[in-house]
Amino acid sequence: MGKSFIQEGEVLTFTAPTGGVTAGVPVLIGTLPVIPVATVAQTLPFEGYTCGVHSVPKLGSQAWTEGALVYLDNTNHHFTTVSTGNTRAGIAVAAVGSGAGETTGIVRLNGCAAPTGA
Fold first, then answer.
1. 72-76: which pairs have CB atoms within 8 A and are 24 or more residues apart?
2. Which residue among 32, 65, 93, 102 is least crowded, i.e. fewest CB within 10 A of its CB?
3. 80 within 8 A of 62, measured Cβ to Cβ
4. How confident is the model at residue 118, as a pLDDT?
5. What are the tens digits of pLDDT across the range 31-77?
6. Which residues contact 98 (CB under 8 A, 6 or more apart)?
7. What structural domains and CATH numbers belong to the chain?
């Protein structure tokens, strides 16, 4: 490793925003989609995943196809294929239907901050 290397970067330490964070519930830190490892009160440090493949909450009314672009709806803390008003987070790894009970999807987080709707 080079002299400038610090860490791999899949899990990073952040400061919990207003309202704190809940383990497994996605949140934006700036424009970076993050999945917290633990539940932490606001202003405290927490570790969160910025990349990797994760089982995440999604709208039951929305079907996903493999490779579809996926966005984080930070207001409702779920993932969606709707770009408008949401932040690009990665891709759907598996297809999932649109049934009312199909509220979980598999996403590969891209690990990059992105502007809303990008």
1. 72/26, 72/28, 72/33, 74/26, 74/27, 74/28
2. 65
3. yes
4. 63
5. 999 999 999 999 999 999 999 999 999 988 999 999 999 999 999 99
6. 60, 61, 62, 63
7. 11-110 (2.40.300)
